[in-house]
Amino acid sequence: MAAVQNYSTKASLPGATSTTWSNALPFTVPPTLLHLPLPSSTWLATTAVIILSLLVIEQTVYRMKKGHLPGATWTIPIIGKFADSVKPTMEGYQRQWASGALSAISVFNIFIVMAASNDYARKILNSPNHAEPCLVHSAKKILQPDNWVFLTGKSHVDYRRVLNTLFTRKALGIYVSIQDSISRKHFARWLATAAEDPKPQPIMFTARDLNMDTSLRVFCGPHIPEHAAREINEKYWAVTQALELVNFPFAFPGTKVYKAIQARKVAHKWLELAAAKSKISMAAGNEPECTLDAWVREMQSPDYKGRKDFSDREMAMVVFSFLFASQDAMSSGLIYGFQHLADNPSVLAKVREEQERVRKGNRDIPMTLELLDEMPYLRAVVKETLRVKPPVTMVPYVAKKAFPISENYTVPVNSMVIPSFYNSLHDPAVFPEPDAFTPERWLDPNSSANQNPRNYLVFGSGPHKCIGIEYATMNIALVLANAAMLMEWDHVLTPDSDKVLIIATLFPKDGCQLKFRPRPRV
User: Fold this and answer.
1) Measuring CA to CA, which of 55, 181, 240, 506 is 20 to 30 A from 246?
2) Nearest to residue 181, comparing CAs of 52, 367, 361, 18?
């Protein structure tokens, strides 16, 4: 055996073995062949056995975790469903959801349980002891692992206690005037661009620009300079691209994750400075002008009993997480709002009738919370556009420990478990003709839509439910209301108009091609 284990060029088979082997052959073997070196063949054979063993283990582990769940009987070695995940489609997701209330897939040996039903989705969202949000694999690298969105327990509660105060009616009253003036400023630009070039233009990035401008001014007010806001806006698309469900996981130079981290560093530099300036302004006794100011002022209140030692960095991380939610989810809702109104002129006519009546024919009146309160049809339009095309179709969670999600299945620890929002929002038993854009379904308090609030998962559920629901819906409503008063727009259909581009959120695949022109004063 010593001769076999010697990997030098003198290694050969033992003589007795060689004789037995050669005598068994029906032809004569030249003596020189009996003493050829075997290191390469031995290494290849050993490697092949190891690889084969690992593949067998991989398949066995996958099948053990999968149990009786619907899903592929065998997973593609190593990569699993990676190819499908790189360019996901709604059709692909719908096929997976249709396979069962719970189903299994594997991507790069990450075992994933997909939850299609409302009951399972809500159970995941409301089981913080068993599952916590992980968003996507790259999220912690980009948003940073100690960002409040990933915290649980008391640490998360400490943040949420003060952040809830930033979206009260009092706070929203500060934001609404900012939102109104910025939307008007951007619409003037849109119309000027349309006058120079009347061809249809995709609004995906112009709407994102409007949202980023609005968000930075609402969150940071005068504490961030104009050139800094432009720099953050220009670089933020890298963050969106890197937060796709599946991405190359390592932050090597040139990768999407690397570019997103660099964009985050730029944003954080300015956001930390804004937090520091806000603290100085509030200490000087100035009135709050933005979210940061409202946060600092709340911590100064003698009635506030929560944590008061938030650092500039911690405040910057929160604002950056708000930017992610507002820039991607809110932009998706806004773009589809424009598309749905253009494709449904009778709905747009009702929106305009309500605007004319509430504003008494004066399009120049700035929007207020009190005016928005008098616009139930507009609110129904926003609620319906977010239902038909929910910006976020699912939010990945990770099982912190074995998660008994049903009577006969337990999600293995460290597995991803992903609740679907889309199915709850398109349940025909709750929303008849679920793909139809029908705002009227929200106007009848006895409608199945209003009687089943459990199904409206646009903003999630449980301890990590979106904290800015009122802000997001108010912004979309305000922008669409001002647009309806100030502009006419036509949706130019393309073969991709009804197809969905899935990045971090949903967008029309063609970017929503619109033609704008000024609306005559009545």
Assistant:
1) 55
2) 367
Write the pLDDT tens digit of every residue in 30-50.
Answer: 555 445 455 667 878 888 777
Could you give the C-alpha distances from 73 to 64, 79, 94, 107, 391, in angstroms and in order? 11, 15, 19, 14, 32
**CB burial of residue 400 (10 Å; 0-12, 13-18, 19+):** middle
- The answer to whether the beta carbons of residues 513 and 490 sit under 8 Å apart is no
What is the residue type of 133?
P
472: helix, strand or coil = helix
Q: Which helix (H) or strand (E) holds 336?
A: helix 331-343
Q: How far is CA 346 from CA 356, 409, 485, in A?
A: 15, 48, 15
Burial class (CB in 10 A: 0-12, 13-18, 19+), 416: buried
Helix (H) or strand (E) segment spanning residue 348: helix 345-358
Q: Which of 447, 416, 512 is nearest to 190 (CA)?
A: 512
Q: Of 174, 279, 274, whose CA–CA distance to 226 is shortest?
A: 274
The Cα 114–Cα 417 span in angstroms is 6
| Chain-centre distance for alpha carbon 177 | 28
Q: Dump pLDDT digits (tens) for 389-447.
A: 999 999 999 999 999 999 999 999 999 999 999 999 999 999 999 999 999 999 999 99
- Give dist(CA 71, CA 114) in Å, integer: 10
Q: In this structure, which long-range contacts are made by residues 99-104, counting pairs with CB atoms below 8 Å and at least 24 apart in sequence?
A: 99/70, 99/71, 100/69, 100/70, 102/69, 102/70, 102/405, 102/406, 102/409, 103/69, 103/70, 103/71, 104/65, 104/66, 104/69, 104/70, 104/71
Length reported for the chain: 522
- Identity of the residue numbered 240: T
H or E element at residue 425: helix 422-425
List, in order, residues 6 or more apart from 120 with CB less than 8 Å away: 101, 102, 405, 406, 419
| Nearest in space to 182 (alpha carbons), one of 233, 236, 235 | 233
**Is residue 512 a known part of a binding site?**
no
Domains for the chain: give ranges and CATH numbers: 141-518 (1.10.630.10)
What's the 3-state SS for 73-116?
Answer: CCCCCCCECHHHHHCCCHHHHHHHHHCCCEEEEEECCEEEEEEC
Q: What is the pLDDT of residue 37?
A: 54
Reading the block at residue 465, the tokens are 């439910």
Amino acid, res. 232: I
Q: In what order do the strands lie in the sheet with 201-202?
A: 201-202, 513-518, 487-491
**CB 110, CB 416: distance < 8 Å:** yes
Residue 496 neighbours by CB distance under 10 Å: 13
Distances 81 to 72, 99, 219, 395, 410 between C-alpha atoms, Å: 10, 15, 39, 18, 22
What does the pLDDT read at residue 35? 52
